[in-house]
Amino acid sequence: MWDWITAELKSIENEFKNVLAQMPAGMAKKEGGLSADVFLFHFCKLPPGNLDARLGHALFGTIRGSRQEQYVTLGDIIVAKASCLRMGEDAAREFCFKILCRVSFLIAGGTNQEPTLTIERSPLEQALRACLKLALGAEASSSSDCVEAIAEGALSINGLKRSSMDLDCYSRWSKCWPAFHDLLSALIKGAGWSQDSLEMKGDPGTAHVRTQPEVSSQGMAGIQMEQCKQNDINKLLPSLLDLGRLKPEDFLLQPVWSWLVASCLPPDMRREWRCLFSTQRDGKSFNTMMGRLGRCEGPTLLLVKDKEGGHVMGGFASAPWVKNGSYFGDYSTFIFGLYPVTLMYKATGINSNFQWCGMGFSQLPNGCGFGGAQGSNNMGQFALYVDSTLDTGMSRPIATFGNDPLASNQIFQVSVVECWQLKPNEEDLEEPLPGKSGNKKKGSILDRAQDRHILGLAGVKVNNSDGLRPEEPIEE
């Protein structure tokens, strides 16, 4: 551990000296400090095209502190990185909250003086937009309604309606939705790491960034966005695959929502998400939906939109969906509302009624959902549920997640249902043999010599497998 910290400090010092030495006259201070542009784009290696100027200056000002000089020193940077990355979660949240406060302060027309540590609703929304621009690039331009929903949820954390955000509110909110906190941490995380240092084996959380070319006398004007690699900023944005005939904008799972939800999941669930089912693409067929979910061995995401209020909600299913006469799943299951208020509800531990999947029952509910009420008299009461017609949904307050209703009404008409696979099946990860197609098919026992021999001993003719070999399933 100490060897790693020593190497990190040495790398920061070396990179600081290298950047300082490369600066043309007038771009670096005599006092041995870095100006804002030099620090942001050469030392932190942030992308100029996506970085809102106010967010960049907020980071710079937070590191500089209360000093009035327009530069940061090596000591400033080391203290900032230690606060954000090495002194525990509380220190990291306080540091990132100060960045967010300063962004809001600059947006509201503040000067270089120290901002107050509270954020009002309107500046908060604009600060969140600046963060989304950095995280999503051009895709952030269509997220105006989403930002309002996120801000509303941030100020309604734990059921308490607030007019402004303080550090306690930020801490609670960032524990539910870590995406914005992770992005603010990433602003400083890769600062000071040269390419040689990044090739060392060590801290797996260190951002992989590349060194910048020498700066010309024209300053930052000649630096293109593709020359500046983002630190860990885009690591939470999974690729959305198997969209079929629909366009990306047709889905409930818009980039801002996938970025937000992915921040709550382990790294191996943040890479590629495949659309297994969408009522807009596949029609309202519960059998089709469950057939595709049944072939998925890992965790999934279920999204639902109600027809009347336009509410968008969903749940993370940790266990595969299989017909079951009892509840299943585990404590990593959670449900959430996305629009018009972005809220997260994790398992409370009161009961283990996490997931339900019913098909062909005469007495039990037929459909799939999350969070069932306790007791036989309450069977059929769910935190989030879609019945087998895919026409009717339910969202009631349930102790499993301690949630408020997620839809406009507790019983609502369903507009859209989507199911997303978050990890490929194990067999899909297996590499095909050299020269073979990548489309793996499970072979019949008639393809294996030992099995054919056993069938022969049993009196079954195996010279011709016609009539014995099962038909290949027809793709839907």
Automatic annotation (TrEMBL):
InterPro entries listed in its UniProt record: TLDc_dom
TLDc domain mapped to chain residues: 251-423
The protein's name in its UniProt record: TLDc domain-containing protein
Lineage: Eukaryota, Viridiplantae, Chlorophyta, core chlorophytes, Chlorophyceae
Stretches the record annotates as Disordered: 428-447
Source organism superkingdom: Eukaryota
